[in-house]
Amino acid sequence: MELIPVFNDYADYSESVVLDGSPYRLAFSWNTRGEYWSLTVSDSSGNVLVDGLKLIINFELISEYAAAGFPLGALMAIDTTGTLTRIGRNDLGEKVKLYYLTGEELAQVLDAAEAV
Predict the structure, then answer these.
(1) Secondary structure class of 92 (helix, strand, coil)
(2) How far is 100 from 45, CA to CA, in rounded Å?
(3) 3-state percent helix, strand, coil for the chain, nearest multiple of 5
């Protein structure tokens, strides 16, 4: 499991990450009206793979987009306090951490869940 550093200093920012050996661009944006963070993911050529994906606590964010060029793992915004129902403006990177699980790690988690 890989922690992806995210920051809430700016309402809009982007960063480059490597997931499963491939480079991606993650762009984060705070929606003031709706009061939520959204995520846009682009490949290394700048092609947008998904735009405006709402970040939801403890929910796997990219599995349904696997056919669109995403890595095979899971991207999740985890509430480290266990107290939040939604991600506030100042929570991302503080109370809420963004993690990437490789396809292998995701398979292990799913196998463990099926065994219960």
Answers:
(1) strand
(2) 21
(3) 15, 45, 40
